Amino acid sequence: MSETICPYCxxxxxxxxxxxxxxxxxxxxxxDCFAENGGCxxxxxxxxxxxxxxxxxTPTDLTPxxxxxxxxxxxxxxxxxxETPQLPAVAPPPPLPAGSSAPPPPPLLAYQPYAMPPANxxxxxxxxxxxxxxxxxxxAVFFGAFGAHNxxxxxxxxxxxxxxxTLCTCFYASLISWIWAIVEACTVTADDDGVxxx
Length: 198
Hints:
Elements: E1 19-21, E2 28-30, H1 31-37, H2 59-62, H3 133-143, H4 148-153, H5 156-168, H6 174-187
Antiparallel strand pairs: 1-2
Helix pairs in contact: 3-6, 5-6
Region (Disordered): 83-102
Subcellular location: Membrane
GO cellular component, one term: membrane
């Protein structure tokens, strides 16, 4: 009998185990396994316990109920007070052993029942309008020696260098700044922030 196993617990029979044979199909079980299951564990056996009732789910069980919206949030003129939401219940802690001191209570959480949403959450974000490439090129052609095109595109360091070259040499080296500006007008496609010139 040591070669067979109990179909309920899947363990082999030991010589000291109490064996119970199913009265309908004759399959051996441990006596406590047969009692725990309430009958035979073999599918289709007439001595098997009755099946549990199947769970029935209706479409209304699957659809969530809409949340209750208090009109007092949207109707500023109403005198209704908002309901305070119920906090989940917390199970009490287990009793402390004798002779031990109680731990300090946890800190209370600050609770704000309702807060108005901000009027415009994106008010701090400003839209940066892209700069015009035509204006950039025209400034480079006509005022390139003064670095006007670089001031326009946000390249302030280059613009100050071009302006200093022109003014500090009393316009003798302005041709160098102007050629530099023409080269930049042909090669620069984005401003200092990386936004493409349109």
